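Entry 14. Structure prediction run on the chain below.
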Amino acid sequence: MFDFYDFMAGSRVEVHYIQNETKRQYLIRQSLQLKKWALLGGLIYYILSTIADFRFPPAVYQQTIPARLFLVLVPLMFITWTYWRKDKFDYTFNLGLLLYLGIASGLVHGFVYYTVIMSGGFFPKVGMAMLLLYSCLLLGLPILFGAICAVVLIVTAAVVYYLTSMPVINIALLTAFYTLFSVCCLIANKVCYFILKENYQLVQKIYHISIYDELTQVFNRRYFVENLHRIYHQAKREQSMLSIVTIDLDNFKLLNDTYGHVAGDDALVKISTIIKKYCKRPLDFVARTGGDEFAVLLYGSNQSHIEGICKSILSDIKSLSIQSSDDGKIISASIGVASTDFKGSVYDIEELIHNSDVAAYQSKKNGKNRFTVFNSES
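Output returned:
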């Protein structure tokens, strides 16, 4: 029978949180940490760059600092705060703001470069490469958005270099370098995206394995216990009846001994399909909890409904006429039912499982192919 304490002593799979998570949600969540740190690093870098503008003559920084402050720094501070302080936010809106930041930072960089050079100062060209790295890779933007940023930044740089009378050959070489650098960053971005997609599929597969019985494809013992706890507390809050139906197959060992495990596996698949069709409501489900044992969790059912399900399961299993031996014995089931309604006698989870096992044992003891409803007085 089902040993609750033995099961709970086992290890727990930590991937259940993605049960209802779409691939898009997973990719957004996985890239969140990258964006958070990239934004924080970008904010610190941009503050330092803004402060560094004070090294230029007043006529220069009085133009560059307002442009940096209002067009880039304020939006950057806002979105950095959004990613670090808010648990939920409008991803589509923030994605548009990230695209704006990538383009605006490139345009402002070009403006600062032009202003400094035209005043006779020096401004390093490495800043454009850093912006391309930031926009195409570190922000984790979708490939299309990263490509848009790259094109705008490269065109901006070429125009500004031309306006500052840089030799055409130098402009061509720098443009080629920026293009190659951007392509490399975008390829790295795409590779990371594919790795995340493969991870998502792998985690989904692991999650499926962790909660489903490999043979019958109904839920397994682990899932039964973990969800029993969740649904039990929900039933307690809502004062709803919660029932466990334990189904222990009769003559199953005899079937394996006579016809082999292949025949036994085939019988289990057929029987699990029968049981599963009676779990149609959202919180009802069936799990294989042992070699030849199943458990059904029924939420908010009344006694007549539960008894009707038990009778139908018994009838359907018997109608399969699966012979367990050459002497004519067939596979049937001994069923035990235990319920708690939180209004009268209340059983805790361990008692509920134990009571359903006791009732199933009573059915087997009284001749098999029957169901017994647990009664504490009997």
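DSSP finds twelve helices and six strands in the chain.
Filed with the rest of this week's runs.
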